Amino acid sequence: MSLNVIDLIKGQLGPALVSQAASQFGESESGISKAIGGLLPAVVGGLANNADKPGVVDAITQASSSGILGNLLGSSSGNPIISNLLSSIFGDKVSALINSIASFSGVSNTTAGSLLNLVTGATVGTVGKYAADNNLGASGISSLLNDQRGIISSLLPAGLSLASLGLGAENWFGHAKETVSSVTSTAKDNISEGVATARENVSEGAREVRERFENNNNNNQGGGSIWKWLLPLLLLIAAAYFLWKQCEKKQTTTTTTTTSDSAATSSTTDTAATATTATPAPATAKTDENIDLNGVMLKGYKGGMEDQMITFLKSGEYKNAADDSALKDKWYDFDHVNFKMGSSSELEAGSQGQLDNLVAILKAFPEAKIKIGGYTDKTGNEASNVKLSQARADYIKAALAKAGVGAQVLGAEGYGSKFAKVDAKASDAERAADRKMSVRFAK
C-alpha cells in the first residue's frame, strides 16, 4: 500500500494549530477545521497532478530546509515559495478555490486565503521533510506525489467536490475521462453494428417469407389458404418491429448510461468521501471554556485534563488515597500539549498554555504530587520510541521545574508503544490517539 501523505501532514495541523489559527483570524475553531479539511486534499491533489513539474519538486526540496514547519502561521503568509507554487499548480483557479472554501466552511475569504497558504506550507514542508529523511531524490518525490492521485477525491469532505472547488474532473482525471470516453465510443459502435445486423436479418427473413407466400398464392386454387401464409408473415413482421425497437432502446440507454458515468466521476467519489474524511468533524469540535480553579478561570475543555484534575483534587480523593497504588491507574491526557514531528525539545504552537494551566493547578494544590508519562504509536523501532517518549517526558518535567513546581513532580517515564492500542497499519489519524503525553497523581 502506498504512503498516504495526507496522514503525515495532519500531524502538523492538529487541534493546537486550529485553536491558534481561530484566535489569530477571529474565526470559530469549527470553521477553521472545516476549511483545512477541504483545502488539504485539494492542495495534495494539485501537487499530485503537477508532480512532474521541476518547479513543484524544487519547491518541496526548498521547503524541507526553510524551517517553514516551525512557524506555519507566521512563515506561510507571503512566502514566495508558497505563492509561486500555488500559481504553478492552480493557475487562475486560486481565487475560485478560496471562494469555494470560504463558502463551504463559513470563514471569510481573507481567512480562507491565509489557510490555503498555511496548508500548502504544511504540505510541502512535511513532504520535503519526509523526502529528506528517506533520501528521496526528485524522481522519488514525483513518484510519491503521483501515488496520491487515486485517493484525493475520496478524502474531500461531504459537500465538496472537485467541480465545486473550480477544479473540474477534466483537469484532474483527464486520463480516466479519456478511458471512459473510449469505452463509450466502443460500446456505441458495437451496439450500432448489432442493430444494423438485426435489421438486416429481419428484413431478409421477411423478404423470404413474402416470396414464398407470393409463389404459393400464384399456384393455390383454394381461396381460404391465403391466411396459412399471411398470418405467419404478419407475426414475423410484428416480431421484427419489436426486436428493432428493443435494439434502438438498448442503444439509447447504454449510451446515456455510459456518458452519465463519465460525468459523474467526481460526484460519485464525493459521496464516498463522507466516510473517509479524517479531518476533525465540526459537529464534535471542542471549544475552550472557563475552568474554575478556586476562583481563577483557566482556559480548557469541559471534561478535559484541567477540568478532571481540579474535580479530582476538590473531591478529596487525592487526600484520602492511602498510597501511590491507589492512584497509578488514572492518567490524564494533555489536550493541547504536542511536540513537533520527531522532536523532543520543540512544542507545537499553542502547547504552552496547557503547561501553564498545570502549573497553576499544582500551585493551587501544593500538597498534590504528579508523574509524567510519554507514549508513542506502534510504528517504528521500539527502542527509538522509548527513547523519544522518555525525552519528551523529561522535557515536560524540566519545564514544570523551571516554572517553580519541580518539587511536586515525582518522576517522568517514557513508555514507547507499550500501551498503544491502534494497529501499526492503521492510518496516521487513527494512530494519533496513541501519540500523547499524560500526567497522573502520585504519592
Structure commentary:
The protein has 443 residues and is an alpha+beta fold. Mean pLDDT is 77; it is low at 169-188 and 250-284. Helix 4 packs across helix 8. The two termini are 47 Å apart. The protein has helices spanning 5-10, 15-25, 29-48, 54-64, 72-75, 80-90, 94-105, 109-133, 138-146, 169-172, 174-219, 226-263, 265-276, 305-315, 317-320, 352-364, 382-402, 428-431; strands at 288-293, 296-301, 331-333, 369-375, 409-414, 436-442. Helix content is 59%, strand content 8%. The protein has 18 helices and six strands. A four-stranded mixed sheet has the order 3-6-4-5, with helices on one face. It has a two-stranded antiparallel sheet with strand order 1-2. The relative contact order is 0.10. The radius of gyration is 33 Å and the shape is elongated. The longest helix has 46 residues, at 174-219.
Descriptive terms for the model:
elongated, 443 residues
